[in-house]
Structure formats: structure tokens, C-alpha cells
Q: What sequence folds into this?
């Protein structure tokens, strides 16, 4: 099993550009989530999904969109990147919120 | 409001010394708490959860509902314990999610 994979590992964007961070898992997990990690701020939940077709907002959803068309994939879209979105992004998955979350390796995003 | 507080950003101890990483929470429901750890160049991973009541890598954590705390303890720190530690609270009912603290960076010096 590959576990939770994220692409790309690194990305540099200009303000206003859009992009999609990819997240996939091969563990048949229902629950998937996106976090951003910033120095001194810890991990903050952006969006999460309890199953295909179901998504909900976390603590810091503004500027991000998600969709969950399959169990395996949970992409995160930045519609118009801003410097405040410079961060490390982690995707995680678990059988349910009751279970251990497995994290991906992260995507380091810089917005100039 | 649901909140997890880790008061120490940085914690430095010497090898063999006891270590305690503090975590306090605010939650109106029945709490379920976790400790996650991120070693250098590795993924964030679960260290332990309070309902398991187990010791992992020599670490233990006891839920104290009176003090709303879930401190992580180890009697004798090792250099390989150096890492970033996050306390997390599971929120239930309506929104099912984990709320993380800001993390404590533990450095164990030789």
C-alpha cells in the first residue's frame, strides 16, 4: 500500500494563479481531510469529507475548494492564490473520525 | 469554544531527564484526546490516544477531566524523542473533526 500520497511536493505560485493539490489514498478510508501547517499556528483544518460526495468546512476554508467524487481522491483547489496561503499542506485519511488519521508527506506551497 | 492549548512552543531537556508536554483543552462534550508526533523528515503520526490507556515508546498521557488536561509524560527522555508534538481533540456531533494544538517542539540534548 502506498498509503496517503500528495502531489506536488513543492510548488511556487504567483498571486492570483490557481492550482490543485492532489491527495489520494489506497486504504479505502471514508474520512479525508486537509490541514495547513504554519509556524506558531499548528495544524488547522481546511476542509474534510466523511465519504464520497460529502464535504464540509473546517476552521480556515476561505480561498479553498474541495470535492470528493471518489473514495480514493480528495483534491484541494486554490482558486486565486494569495501570499497568505503560503504554507505546508497535509492531507490525512482514516476509516472514520474515530480512528487514527494517516497523514501524507505534505506539499510546501509558496505564493509570491 | 472547542480549543486545545499547548502552552510551550519549545521544550528542551537533557537525555535521561523526565519530560512533560502540557496540553489543556476546552470542550463541552465528553473529550477524546490524542497525541500526534512529527519526527524530522517524517510524516505526522499518531503517538497515543487516551482511550487506549497504553504506553507508546515510554510515553503515557492521562486524561484529567477536572483540570481539563492531557499532559504527555516520559520518565527518561531519549535523543530520538526530539520531535514536534501535537495534542488533538476530537469534536463530535454535527461536525466530526480533529482540532489540533499549536504544537510543542521537544529537543532532547545529549
A:
Amino acid at each position: 500500500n502506498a498509503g496517503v500520497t500528495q502531489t506536488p511536493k513543492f510548488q511556487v505560485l504567483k498571486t492570483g494563479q490557481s492550482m490543485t493539490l492532489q491527495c489520494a489514498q489506497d486504504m479505502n478510508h471514508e474520512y479525508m481531510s486537509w490541514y495547513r501547517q504554519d509556524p506558531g499556528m499548528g495544524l488547522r483544518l481546511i476542509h474534510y469529507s466523511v465519504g464520497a460526495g460529502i464535504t464540509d468546512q473546517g476552521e480556515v476554508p476561505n480561498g479553498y475548494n474541495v470535492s470528493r467524487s471518489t473514495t480514493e481522491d480528495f483534491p484541494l483547489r486554490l482558486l486565486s492564490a494569495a501570499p497568505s496561503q503560503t504554507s505546508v499542506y497535509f492531507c490525512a485519511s482514516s476509516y472514520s473520525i474515530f480512528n487514527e488519521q494517516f497523514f501524507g508527506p505534505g506539499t510546501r506551497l509558496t505564493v509570491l | 469554544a472547542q480549543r486545545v492549548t499547548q502552552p510551550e512552543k519549545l521544550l528542551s531537556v537533557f537525555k535521561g531527564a523526565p519530560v512533560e508536554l502540557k496540553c489543556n483543552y476546552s470542550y463541552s462534550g465528553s473529550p477524546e484526546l490524542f497525541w500526534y508526533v512529527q519526527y524530522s523528515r517524517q510524516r505526522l503520526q499518531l503517538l497515543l490516544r487516551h482511550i487506549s490507556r497504553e504506553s507508546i515508546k515510554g510515553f503515557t498521557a492521562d486524561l484529567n477531566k477536572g483540570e481539563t488536561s492531557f499532559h504527555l509524560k516520559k520518565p527518561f527522555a531519549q535523543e530520538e524523542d526530539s520531535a514536534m508534538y501535537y495534542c488533538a481533540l476530537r469534536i463530535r456531533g454535527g461536525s466530526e473533526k480533529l482540532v489540533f494544538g499549536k504544537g510543542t517542539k521537544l529537543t532532547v540534548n545529549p
In short: The CA atoms of residues 36 and 46 of chain B lie 4 Å apart. The two ends of chain B are 40 Å apart (CA to CA). The mean pLDDT of chain B is 92.
